[in-house]
């Protein structure tokens, strides 16, 4: 079975274009087979995007997939964007989606934070649950280490995927974990870095 976080060169392409709206601003995204939420922006991803308050400075879209979160937020709030993922197939789409939505970004192939230097004012994550708890927790820990003082980490998680356990882990790491949204079993968390 092919997982969306593995690059499978034997997988046949199935490119799909679709629109996404943030208020009156429209975006066009291209997705492909073998990436998360092929064919449309995932509902949890949408809740994350729509519940994040206005941001400033630099944003890391961690585990960016085809890039929706970072591209929308960078365009709406004029952010300096970095996008990273472990799957090269997803990154090729993120680059294409940046270009077709006129958003500039640094796009990095990275297993968790292995190739990510520096610190950011905000980091977003819809975690790769199927990659396992150790990967998800490594992403949480790396986020803490890569935030500027006063920086914010935004995570969306489903209750059925362990959102409440994740909230405990995030509270241990950051000393805080606010709930920005709770809807139909989906939580959007906000953590403030000290
Ligand atoms: C749930 S998807 C979210 C994708 C995208 N952010 C979205 O919301 O549409 C999680 C992403 O994490 C990536 N991922 C999985 N393991 C990773 C790792 N070890 N390091 C970085 N990214 C990883 C996957 O390839 C996938 O694109």
Question: What tags apply to this protein structure?
Answer:
two-stranded antiparallel sheet; single chain; 194 residues; binds S-adenosylmethionine; Rossmann fold; alpha/beta
Mind explaining what this structure looks like?
This protein is an alpha/beta fold. The protein has a single domain, classed as 3-Layer(aba) Sandwich (Rossmann fold). 29% of the residues lie in helices and 31% in strands. A 7-stranded mixed beta sheet has the order 5-4-3-6-7-9-8, with helices on both faces. It has a two-stranded antiparallel ribbon with strand order 1-2. Helix 2 (68-77) links the parallel strand 3 (58-62) and strand 4 (80-85). Helix 1 (43-51) packs parallel to helix 2 (68-77) and helix 4 (133-145) runs parallel beside helix 5. It starts with 15 loop residues before the first strand and ends with a strand. The model has no long low-confidence stretch (mean pLDDT 96).
Number of strands: 9
- From the alpha carbons, calculate the radius of gyration and give it in angstroms: 15 Å
Helix/strand order = EEHEHEHEEHEHEE
Overall geometry: globular
> Could you describe the largest sheet, including whether it forms a barrel?
7 strands, mixed
Low-confidence stretches: none
Strand content: 25-35%
CATH homology-level superfamily: Vaccinia Virus protein VP39
Chart the SSEs and their pairings.
Blueprint: E1 16-22, E2 25-31, H1 43-51, E3 58-62, H2 68-77, E4 80-85, H3 88-100, E5 105-109, E6 120-125, H4 133-145, E7 147-158, H5 163-174, E8 178-183, E9 186-192
Parallel strand pairs: 3-4, 3-6, 4-5, 6-7
Antiparallel strand pairs: 1-2, 7-9, 8-9
The structure holds S-adenosylmethionine.
S-adenosylmethionine binds next to helix 2.
């Amino acid at each position: 079975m092919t997982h969306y976080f593995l690059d499978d060169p034997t997988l046949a392409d199935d490119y799909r274009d679709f629109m996404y709206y943030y208020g009156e601003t429209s975006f066009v995204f291209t997705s492909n087979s073998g990436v998360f939420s092929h064919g449309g922006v995932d509902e949890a991803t949408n809740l994350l995007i729509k519940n994040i308050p206005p941001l400033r400075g630099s944003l890391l879209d961690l585990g960016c997939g085809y890039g929706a979160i970072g591209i929308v937020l960078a365009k709406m709030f004029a952010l300096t964007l970095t996008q990273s993922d472990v799957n090269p197939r997803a990154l090729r789409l993120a680059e294409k989606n940046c270009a077709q939505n006129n958003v500039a970004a640094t796009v990095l192939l990275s297993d968790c934070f292995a190739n990510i230097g520096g610190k950011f004012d905000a980091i977003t994550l819809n975690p790769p649950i199927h990659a396992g708890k150790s990967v998800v927790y490594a992403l949480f820990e790396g986020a803490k280490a890569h935030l500027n003082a006063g920086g914010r980490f935004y995570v969306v998680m489903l209750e059925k995927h362990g959102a409440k356990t994740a909230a405990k882990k995030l509270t241990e790491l950051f000393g805080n974990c606010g709930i920005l949204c709770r809807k139909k079993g989906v939580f959007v968390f906000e953590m403030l870095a000290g």
